[in-house]
């Protein structure tokens, strides 16, 4: 009997040790994943910061002027004199990519800011007011969401014509329904909370309740969506520029560089490759930053 009791005790002890080891291994694996995710987000932030520096002071970094035509180096492959090669005018591709960063980032940031402001205001109004206001605004958003965002931006840009303000307006208009629905969903879930009712009972105005109690708690999902939407805006802007609906300037953006180099893919692959890599790198970087922000701001995801 004592032997059986001893065996049972040993089995329980072994099971407890195995459980502790499994829990320790799971915790270590989770920590490694967190550190790896943080490392990726740090590298992505560094890349975005570098591109912002390119956009702010391209003349300090670019080796040549973007309009300098070196006729003795036309369609030169990447080398020591021109690290990323030259185009059919003899312009340095590295300088063009660096100078094109300004217009590309300006399109992305401006369109996201305009979309967040317009969509956030409409979503906040619909979510807080409710009733017919909510119904009318959200049905309008539903109508816009039935049209693919890229197609809507393309239609608006084609109707307005090329130009920086027009392309920003087109991309922003296509993103408004998404931001409006996210903001409206967050506010609908907050407006019936106890502290909101208490603030109203104490005589707080609607503007005070929205500004002090609702918006600070509803803005996090919109911020994450805007971060990820920045990459989509850059990609959409590049697509519109590729189709000839972008900015009209002697310094092309990344999408215009792709469009200019598509006819030379067989003889000068570098004209399209490096602007495409710049677009891909930026989109990937902001998506990684958006994922990290989501994990930081949403405890349910980080749990």
Automatic annotation (TrEMBL):
The keyword Membrane applies. Residues 101-290 form the ABC transmembrane type-1 domain. It comes from the Bacteria. CDD domains: TM_PBP2. Signal peptide: none annotated. InterPro entries: BP-dependent_transpt_permease (IPR050366), MetI-like (IPR000515), MetI-like_sf (IPR035906), PH_domain (IPR001849). The chain crosses the membrane at residues 35-61, 105-131, 143-161, 222-247, 267-290. Keywords: Cell membrane, Membrane, Transmembrane, Transmembrane helix, Transport. Pfam families: BPD_transp_1. Residues 1-44 form the PH domain. It is a multi-pass membrane protein. Belongs to the binding-protein-dependent transport system permease family. This is Peptide/nickel transport system permease protein.
């Amino acid at each position: 009997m004592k032997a059986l009791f001893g065996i049972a005790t040993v089995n329980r002890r072994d099971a407890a040790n195995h459980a502790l080891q499994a829990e320790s291994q799971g915790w270590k694996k989770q920590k490694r994943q967190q550190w790896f995710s943080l490392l990726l987000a740090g590298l992505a932030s560094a890349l975005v910061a570098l591109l912002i520096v390119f956009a702010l002071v391209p003349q300090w970094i670019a080796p040549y002027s973007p309009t300098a035509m070196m006729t003795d180096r036309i369609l030169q492959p990447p080398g020591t004199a021109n690290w990323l090669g030259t185009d059919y005018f003899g312009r340095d591709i590295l300088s063009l990519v660096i100078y094109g960063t300004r217009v590309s980032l300006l399109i992305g940031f401006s369109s996201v800011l305009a979309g967040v402001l317009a969509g956030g205001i409409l979503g906040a109004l619909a979510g807080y007011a409710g009733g017919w206001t909510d119904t009318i605004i959200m049905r309008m958003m539903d109508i816009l969401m039935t049209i693919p965002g890229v197609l809507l931006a393309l239609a608006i840009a084609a109707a307005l014509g090329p130009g920086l303000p027009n392309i920003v307006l087109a991309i922003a208009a296509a993103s408004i329904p998404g931001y409006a629905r996210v903001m409206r969903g967050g506010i609908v879930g907050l407006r019936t909370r106890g502290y909101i009712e208490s603030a109203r009972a104490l005589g707080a105005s609607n503007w005070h309740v929205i500004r002090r109690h609702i918006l600070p708690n509803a803005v996090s999902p919109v911020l994450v969506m805007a971060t990820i939407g920045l990459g989509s805006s850059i990609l959409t802007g590049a697509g519109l520029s590729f189709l000839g609906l972008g900015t009209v300037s002697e310094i092309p953006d990344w999408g215009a560089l792709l469009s200019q180099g598509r006819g030379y893919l067989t003889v000068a692959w570098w004209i399209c490759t490096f602007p495409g890599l710049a677009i891909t790198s930026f989109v990937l970087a902001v998506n990684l930053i958006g994922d990290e922000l989501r994990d930081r701001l949403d405890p349910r995801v980080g749990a």
